[in-house]
Amino acid sequence: MTQSIPDWNAAIDRLDGAYAPATLRAYRGDFAVFAHWCETENLPALPASPETVAAFIAFHAQNLCANTVRRRLNGIRKVHRLLRMPNPCDDEEVLIAMRRAYRNKGMRARQALGLTRDIKAKLIEACDLTTVVGLRNRAIIMLAYDVMCRRSEISALEVEGLTPCDDGGLTLLVRRTKSDPLGEGRLAYASPQTRECVDAWLAASGIKTGPLFRGFRNGRIKAQAINPASVNTIIKTVAADAGLPAATVEGLSGHSARIGAAQDLVCDGADLIAIMTAGRWKSVATVARYVEAALVRRVGVERLQRLVPASTT
């Protein structure tokens, strides 16, 4: 029997404008999963008891990674707080269930494949520069790598935020980022090569003001900014056109240019603090996880070079 529960969707609506749209979508999706599970188990979703939430965690931890379960727990917690109901998620029973999930499945999250300079070169070569779409895709890939942008940041870029530099490069205003929810903005720099790509896209598209990157409908450029999710699709499509292995195409995402640029910085000898500054990361642990493989490789090569005696002639 369908349960009659408070309008939790309306409660999440109250967050509109205070949180990123992606965060609101996550809250809605995650609590909808919880509410559906409670209905099938004939358990109340609002307010939920700690025992119900713990059982939900145990059920989903069988097939999902622990970090996904934790994200769903955040949605449950937020809805209860919005409705001013007792929060079951901080109960010891729930904390034990989450700890058990982490011990059983591990905390290591799946990471997007880094779009390093080698992969970037192959993608750029695959862009059809005889078409406006190809010029746009090339500009997106080049700019995302140079500025280490998130896909939402790429979508939010505007023509008015571009300023040519004397050295041939380009500064751009990133108006809103994940780490800047209040929208104070920051300046970023793109290389002369990237500026040429952006200029070619603007010249071909005829865009003078407003959103820098836009989608297409019936062969015509739309007035609205490109959807952040479309950045994923563009990168995967270009990667497939480049003939990259299926596993590589699958691993790439709208986050890949940011990760790949950080990995290249490690291989070039940059330290974690410099990479954190370039990518606007606040957590050493986060950036260390992104560049772990490249850092291990660099340290390993340097160690082996010290151990192997120099060849003699």
Task: Describe the 3D structure.
It is elongated, with a radius of gyration of 23 Å. The chain has a 3-stranded antiparallel β-sheet with strand order 1-2-3. Strands 4-5 form a two-stranded antiparallel ribbon. It has 15 helices and 5 strands. It has 313 residues and is mostly helical. α4 (66-82) packs antiparallel against α5 and α7 (132-147) crosses α12 (256-267). The N and C termini lie far apart (85 Å).
Short description:
The chain is mainly alpha-helical and 313 residues long.
Keywords for this structure?
313 residues, mainly alpha, three-stranded antiparallel beta sheet, 57% helix, 7% strand, elongated
Write the layout of secondary structure elements.
Elements: H1 8-13, H2 21-40, H3 50-60, H4 66-82, H5 92-105, H6 117-126, H7 132-147, H8 151-156, E1 162-164, E2 170-174, E3 186-190, H9 192-205, E4 214-217, E5 220-225, H10 228-241, H11 246-251, H12 256-267, H13 272-279, H14 284-290, H15 292-307
Antiparallel strand pairs: 1-2, 2-3, 4-5
Helix pairs in contact: 2-4, 3-5, 4-5, 6-7, 6-10, 7-9, 7-12, 12-13, 12-15
Number of helical elements: 15
The spatial strand order of the largest sheet comes to 1-2-3
How many strands, what sense, and barrel or not for the largest sheet? 3 strands, antiparallel
Radius of gyration, whole Å: 23 Å
